[in-house]
Design a protein that fits this description.
four-stranded antiparallel β-sheet, mainly beta, Ribosomal_bL33_CS, 1 helix, elongated
Length: 54
């Protein structure tokens, strides 16, 4: 399936050190570098930066 290679499943790991992760997909053509998003960490109870963990 060619669709799975273009949009791989990635893990977004919290930079707060709690170990909390989000699982999502990304388009490799639009964002070939590591993805960084600000999302809510329920363990830290605040918004923190989540970085891509392959």
């Amino acid at each position: 399936m060619a669709g799975n290679e273009l949009r791989p499943v990635i893990k977004l790991r919290s930079t707060a050190g709690t170990g909390y992760t989000y699982v999502t997909r990304k388009n490799r053509r639009n964002s070939p570098d590591r993805l960084t998003l600000t999302k809510y960490d329920p363990i830290a109870r605040r918004h923190v930066e989540f970085r891509e963990d392959r």
